[in-house]
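User: Here's a chain of 346 residues. Predict its fold as tokens.
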Amino acid sequence: MSENKAIVVTAVKTLEIQDLEMPKIGPNEVLYEVHSCSLCTVEQRVYSGAKNFGFPLLGGHENAGVVIAVGDDVREYKVGDKVIATLGYCGECEYCKTGKGSSCKNSMKAKKRVNFPGPIIGGGLAKYLAVPSWQLCKIPDNANFDHFALTEPLACCVHSIEKARVEFGDVVVVIGAGIMGMLHVRLAKLKGAYVIVSEVDQARRLKATEMGADVTVDPSTEDAVARIKELTNNKGADVVINAIATPKIWPDAIGMLAPYGRLVAYSSQDSKEPVGVDMDKLHSKEYEIIGTVSPTMESNLRATKLIALGMVDMEALIDSRYESADCTKAFDRASSPNTYRCIIHI
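Assistant: Prediction complete.
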């Protein structure tokens, strides 16, 4: 067994590869060897200085790997099993126990999976972790680790689509064609929806079409609300999913809705700028505004099945791959505009 190397963000735009202690597992834990780790926007924002959880920071909540040792009380997993580790749930609070683990009260307070002096978000940028067995999901023996490292973002969108209650024949508008917008497109199509994508970047509009979008709209050159109304015989969309962090988009997003329409607030909003809502219109049109954030355990399990069955093309959303020694190149590439996911082989 090799040393426990970890890629650590020690300051803005600064990474170090550090040697950590090998984790010791308890009776209900497994020793988990990470093979592939995807760089989420959380790692990107910490690295660029847009977010500050404190330094040093160990990220890596999008990952896939192998079980290499099991505790005495573990029954479901054995050495050699390929798995993904969900890492975001305490399993003890009321939310975790009622299928609402996306609001886990203790996700940042769980027992450390590795001896590390700073905050840990996931921890999959370390080679080895001690993980409670219930936080794992099995993946096939022939699994592509890079594809399954994207389980968590796909699971986020599974959770979002399920909360939106997308049905056959629904018109769904996805605003923004980054990786999360693209995953929403594919999942909405699997639900039988007619999908319209609003995106200013031409290359992303083309990729959205490849992922299954029926129509794309460029809001920088045309009135997106008017175009949606035109495409729906002046009715509007049954579901609008906002996947960009721009407060100015909300009036248009609401304007695209049909009566009884559901507006999904998917993207995080870095700005705390208030958004005006015509509450009388919300009342009279019976709109719903739905917040959604991280996945539940169930969403992660469904996501692994979708990837295993080849129902979502994860390869199309991988921008580039790097070895640990090239981690700075990986973080720089991941943080550049219009980039999909970058994978680091740990």
